[in-house]
TrEMBL record:
This is Aminotransferase. One of its GO terms (molecular function) is L-aspartate:2-oxoglutarate aminotransferase activity. GO terms for biological process: amino acid metabolic process. It is an enzyme of class 2 (transferase). Its EC number is 2.6.1.-. The keyword Methyltransferase does not apply. InterPro entries: Aminotransferase_I/II_large (IPR004839), AspAT/PAT-like (IPR050596), NHTrfase_class1_PyrdxlP-BS (IPR004838), PyrdxlP-dep_Trfase (IPR015424), PyrdxlP-dep_Trfase_major (IPR015421), PyrdxlP-dep_Trfase_small (IPR015422). It comes from Pseudooceanicola albus.
């Protein structure tokens, strides 16, 4: 007996860099100390007030099935948040609650693409982007954003890829994981223009929208002619330190939300209702709470810049947002993969190789700003010293 073709097709998409994560875990299990900069998870637990709201909701009986696109009060709160943050009038009917941002990404592509279609995605990219597209039966095609351009994608590159493939959709992410780059207003305008010209659906992953250190986050949905062709992915994971709660959302035209609701009925049956109540309590804490969650990453990004300043071997991408910094280590002569393997074996520091986020990030490393400041400073100081020793005097 053989399994179907979908999972082998996903596996064939290549490495995602998790071998470094697994190696780090194995070393820790063996009693070793590892400074782990791999996983983008806030280093604080979910707020007790949010947990208490979940607890009381569960005790109150909200433990049964959840049908449809989510609790009405949570959809209203998400719509109000999106309206306030982007200036685009958003109704509850434009929102479906999903089991995390990844489920929203999958739902968007399942709704918008058919077997044999092509979905574009900007690279460097989060590893599940191409595999999510492939899981729908569509083809996945990368549009490279290059280090020389500050990892800002261009409209010309998008239009070339669409003309070559006949693609129906484009997936972007700003603030960006893995680079930490925030797309400039002219970049977002160019993307929007390319989508209008080529008649593309735009799927905009905005889960890091509260983590902007320079400039501002521009949602392409706010630009002229874009609300009717844009699907926005949101999540409580990064903005409210609720990674394990698995609560995200999709904001889109009503027909997309209706189709995603049909998909949910046949896959997840929605999101646990008491967790939805916890998300509602978290949103009620307001923008000041979101800034409190983001503050350590703002501080640690500045710390990284201070440690790297003046290095011959390591430089930073223009990290203006998100909880990551991309380090350029090409001066060492090593690939990101080789550097990361040697770093964990020789220094017991775990980082993600740039190649795990696509060829456009070759010769780079992604570090997550998720260790306490003193440990992060130690890890970065040792990483830079390790890199310096590789560069001829």
């Amino acid at each position: 007996m053989q399994i179907g073709s979908r999972i082998p097709r996903i596996r064939a998409a290549g490495t995602d860099g998790w071998e470094i994560v697994y190696r780090a875990r194995a070393l820790v299990a063996a009693g070793e100390t590892v400074l782990n900069l791999t996983i983008g998870e806030p280093d604080r637990s979910t707020d007790p007030r949010v947990l208490e709201a979940m607890h009381q909701a569960a005790l109150g009986g909200l433990t049964g099935y959840t049908f449809g696109p989510g609790l009405p009060e949570l959809r209203r709160a998400i719509a109000a948040r999106v309206t306030a943050r982007t200036g685009v009038a958003t109704r509850p009917e434009n929102v479906i609650v999903t089991p995390g941002g990844q489920a929203a990404l999958f739902a968007a592509h399942m709704v918008l693409l058919s077997k044999g279609d092509t979905g574009l995605y900007v690279t460097p990219h989060y590893p599940t982007y191409p595999t999510t597209i492939l899981a729908t039966g569509a083809q996945a095609e990368a549009v490279a954003a290059h280090a020389a351009d500050g990892f800002q994608p261009t409209a010309a590159a998008i239009l070339r890829a669409q003309a070559r493939t006949g693609a129906r959709s484009l997936l972007i992410n700003t603030p960006n994981n893995p680079t930490g780059v925030v797309y400039a207003p002219e970049t977002v305008a160019g993307i929007a223009g390319a989508c209008r010209e080529a008649d593309l659906w735009l799927i905009s992953d905005e889960v890091y929208d509260t983590q902007v250190w320079e400039g501002h986050h521009q949602s392409p949905r706010a630009l002229p002619g874009m609300a009717e062709r844009t699907v926005v992915i949101g999540s409580m994971s990064k903005s409210h330190a609720m990674t394990g709660s698995r609560l995200g959302w999709l904001v889109a035209p009503e027909e997309v939300v209706e189709a995603a609701t049909v998909l949910a009925t046949n896959t997840t049956y929605g999101v646990v209702p008491y967790i939805q109540k916890g998300a509602l309590a978290a949103l009620d804490l307001g923008a000041a709470f979101e800034e409190e969650i983001a503050a350590p990453f703002r501080r640690r990004r500045a710390l990284v810049q201070q440690v790297v300043a003046g290095s011959r071997s390591v430089s930073t991408a223009p990290a203006a947002g998100a909880m990551y910094v991309m380090l350029d280590i090409r001066a060492t002569g090593l690939s990101g993969e080789d550097f990361a393997r040697r770093l964990i074996e020789e220094e017991r520091i775990a980082v993600m190789p740039g190649e795990s986020f696509g060829a456009a990030a070759a010769g780079h490393l992604r570090i997550a700003l998720t260790l306490p400041d003193d440990q992060l400073a130690t890890a970065l100081t040792r990483l830079v010293a390790f890199a310096e020793a590789l560069v001829p005097a």
